[in-house]
Amino acid sequence: MDKKFFTKAKGIDGKIKRRYSDFVVEEMTTDGKKCAVEFLLNGKKEFEKLSLPENGKDFLLLEMEKKNIETNLAVKKIARFMHTSQKSIGYAGLKDKRAITCQRISIYKPKKERIENFSMQGLVLKNPCFSDKGIDLGELKGNYFTITIRDIDLEEREIIERVKTAFNEIKKGIPNYFGQQRFGGIRQISHLVGKEIIKGNIENAVMLYLTAQSEKEEPEVKKARLHLIQTLNFKQAEKEFPLKYRYERAMAHYLASNKRDFFGAFNLLPRRLRFLFTHAYQSYLFNKKKKKRIENQLLEAIEGEPQEDGIPLGLIPGFNSKYSPGKIGEIEREILEKEGISFPDFKVKKIKECSCQGARRKILFKPKELKLIETGKDEFFDGKNYCKISFFLEKGVYATVLLDELMKQTET
């Protein structure tokens, strides 16, 4: 979708995530505790060896700091070290890869001698305690963000003025879009795969996952995807995909021996990844409907529409959904009809974890604790300046949406 900004304040432009320490995410637990980054920030490596308290409860709770590692990969690394299953490790939410983050995880019945000797590059486990229950997805209040924006071609005085003006608008509420990371990495195809699953086209879904290309991908990966489209030679594709593309290689290997069993190939993906595809499609539809709603200046709740804290709750469609009343419902119906989708389609009988019941989500969000921490000369970009900001967002809200409104990088 075309990027249009909600706020009127002038943007500061700039770049984010130039260094891992430029993007710090610290989870706030359901009991209001902040999981603070302590050891991986600014190259600090010293940390105490884990010592577990004596306790007979089944679940060990820990705080996990990570640097430049996807949450799922971090969990996989820990599970491998612990000689346990990934399913035995729980977490509340995914955190950014190119960042330094801290969040809680749980491990079911860990081996004391393994956990106390844990050591791994870019990962720190700390603050152990035992509990009767593990951590489930969504079990958090939100996240604190501390972000450094670099390569800003403005004087410090102008940066300060623009940030303060933007913050005054942003704190009143901005559109609660799902961020681009919801739709996958550089290929941005998760929602497209999800749509094929919802429509029952599992072969299309698998082939899209394997063959969709991006100009940003490495040449050898693009070549492997293109060759597979042209030849449908899965045995050759397994050889052509680089080793780190383990899911593509595994699916190609399976299809080389089990021709046409696309359900079997799809089920090789981790369960947590499989259901993300259809959730991405739900998110895509939510964003489309909200964009249309903004264009029609329908930001206030209409009669009979669900709301929370005075903010309308927009529809995230699923098999239990009902259209909203009035004009909002007309917009929802129009978009779904153009997509060729109906509510019952979200019950995926052959892949139950991909079924989506439906929900509602605030159409606006209001960040808390917006702060401009500092500005200064950018040591990594000659003649440019930087600014550091911080804020708190409720769970499920994307920092990149706020940053878009602050930076406005597509302004002319």
Q: Report the CATH C-level class of the domain at 30-131.
A: Alpha Beta
How far apart the termini lie comes to: 18 Å
Number of helices: 12
Approximate strand percentage: 15-25%
Give me the Rg, rounded.
23 Å
Molecular shape: globular
For the record, the CATH architecture of the domain at 30-131 stands as 2-Layer Sandwich
- Calculate the mean pLDDT score and round it: 93
Structural class: alpha+beta
Largest sheet: 8 strands, mixed
Elements, N to C (H/E): EEHEEHEEHEHHHHHHHEEHEEEEH
The tally of strands reads 13
Helix content: 25-40%
CATH fold description of the domain at 30-131: Alpha-Beta Plaits
**Poorly predicted ranges:** none
Tell me what you see in this structure:
By secondary structure, this protein is α+β, with helices and mostly antiparallel strands. Among the domains are: 30-131, Alpha-Beta Plaits; 202-266, Hypothetical Protein Yqey, Chain: A, domain1 (Orthogonal Bundle), CATH 1.10.1510.30; 271-364, TruD, catalytic domain (Pseudouridine synthase), CATH 3.30.2350. It has helices at residues 71-82, 112-115, 156-170, 190-198, 202-211, 219-231, 234-240, 246-257, 262-266, 271-295, 326-339, 399-407; strands at 23-28, 59-67, 89-91, 100-108, 123-131, 142-152, 174-175, 307-308, 311-316, 359-362, 364-365, 368-377, 385-394. The strands form three sheets. Strands 1, 2, 3, 4, 5, 6, 12 and 13 form an eight-stranded mixed beta sheet that branches. It has a three-stranded antiparallel beta sheet with strand order 8-9-10. Strands 7-11 form a two-stranded antiparallel ribbon. Strand 12 (368-377) and strand 13 (385-394) form a beta hairpin. The longest helix is centred in the C-terminal third of the chain and has 25 residues, at 271-295. It is globular and about 65 Å long. It starts with 22 loop residues before the first strand and ends in a 5-residue tail after the last helix. The mean pLDDT is 93.
